[in-house]
Amino acid sequence: MTEIYSAKVWDHVRNPRNVGSLEDANVVVQAGDPTCGDAVLYFLRIEEDIVRDIKFLIKGCGAAIATSSAATELAMGKGLDEVMGLTDQIIAQALDGLPEEKMHCSNMAASALHAAVEQYRATVAGEKPR
Ligand code: FES
Ligand code: FES
């Protein structure tokens, strides 16, 4: 039988990291893929342009669960410029790759993180005195 998913993908499916919601989140974003109907909700606590905490909830396929989970690990503790640089390819690489037809699942995680940074920059960051 050909393996569809890597061992790392299965590890994240069985034991997703940072699942749940964050009571003290200052950014909440949702991203979805209209073609499959899957959706992810990210909760972030961003302070001084650093991701201090991040959690997610999801309704999605195995690849969506694994990539959303891996994306929280890639974003945790990182500066916002670095988070903006996270691509679907980088997230997939952190899982030792994904089948081509499942790359759109990692794109959901990347676009949600980018939207979170944009939301923070447009709202929370803008509230600070200059
Ligand atoms: Fe079935 Fe995403 S809708 S796996
Ligand atoms: Fe929809 Fe994976 S099939 S995100």
Automatic annotation (TrEMBL):
MF terms in GO: iron ion binding; iron-sulfur cluster binding
Biological process (GO), any one: iron-sulfur cluster assembly
Annotated ranges, domain NIF system FeS cluster assembly NifU N-terminal: 5-123
PANTHER family noted in UniProt: IRON-SULFUR CLUSTER ASSEMBLY ENZYME NIFU HOMOLOG
Top-level taxon in the UniProt lineage: Bacteria
The species this protein was found in: Geobacter soli
InterPro entries found in the cross-reference section: NIF_FeS_clus_asmbl_NifU_N
Pfam hit, one: NifU_N
The protein's name in its UniProt record: Nitrogen fixation protein NifU
Lineage of origin: Bacteria, Pseudomonadati, Thermodesulfobacteriota, Desulfuromonadia, Geobacterales
